[in-house]
Amino acid sequence: MRRRHDKPLGRLLRAAVLSFGFLGCDSGPGDVREWTAADHDPPSPNEGQGGKVAARPVASNETDPGLIELAWQRNCSTCHGRAGRGDGPQGPMVRAPDLTDATWQERVTDAQMAETIRKGKNKMPAFDLPQPVIDGLVKRIRTSRAR
Ligand code: HEC
What we know:
The chain is mainly alpha-helical. The chain contains 7 helices and no strands. It folds into 2 domains: 6-33; 65-143, Cytochrome c-like domain (Cytochrome Bc1 Complex, Chain D, domain 2), CATH 1.10.760. The chain has helices at 6-23, 65-75, 77-80, 91-94, 102-107, 110-119, 131-143. α2 crosses α7 (131-143) and α6 crosses α7. The chain binds heme C.
């Protein structure tokens, strides 16, 4: 036996769930968590990885961290290794220094690092990279500093 008064309620609930699914911007139907402002705020320029990214003009002094990572893996990691410890495939052959070394990091300035990257030094080749990329690579080396 069907109980008649259950039916409209069920339909109403289903309609509510469906419309939520359609109205909630990118959440699939059935995703009924509460809406928060973060769902709609555009991502900040530094949240480049994954998901939807609004195209935004990037100030000339900032460079996408993903791009810096790519530049490192393409140009530097063969000698310096993924993390900069000098353990890339060609590291031992050219005696690439450990760039994470805290003592070295304390002695060297950002400007000196940038200059070595731009002009090269002994077995370290020169890299004709745009200034923001060089700055990004210096920053990456600073972040990799061993504690
Ligand atoms: C062919 C191997 C090789 C590659 C590729 C390479 N390096 Fe080096 N790098 C070296 C060697 C060898 C030294 C040590 C130079 C010296 O002091 O004689 C060095 C030194 C450095 C230093 C320390 C300079 C100083 O002031 O003592 C920095 C910073 C550096 N490299 C950054 C980079 C970055 C960034 C890249 C990629 C854009 C890169 N290197 C690519 C071999 C390499």
